[in-house]
Amino acid sequence: MADEIELKTAPADFRFPTANQTRHCFTRYIEFHRCLQAKGEESGECDKFARYYRSLCPGEWIERWNEQRENRTFPGPL
């Protein structure tokens, strides 16, 4: 039998009390990339941030932000 994948969304965050999760998504994306810079790509400590932003953010946004990071035009503080 194949392993079952447990899907979870990011936990509630008091910084984002409203139903609109746009800012929450953006913040989690930034937290993930800051963690990678601080801990390194091999560290598993950043995995939770990856799960959080992937559960909150539309795929199109993630693709665009990844392209912007590659082109050094990302609008957020990394």
UniProtKB/TrEMBL annotation:
Coiled coil: none annotated. One of its GO terms (cellular component) is mitochondrion. Disulfide bonds join 25-57, 35-46. Keywords: Disulfide bond, Mitochondrion. Its main location: mitochondrion. The keyword tRNA-binding does not apply. PROSITE patterns: CHCH (PS51808). Belongs to the cytochrome c oxidase subunit 6B. This is Cytochrome c oxidase subunit.
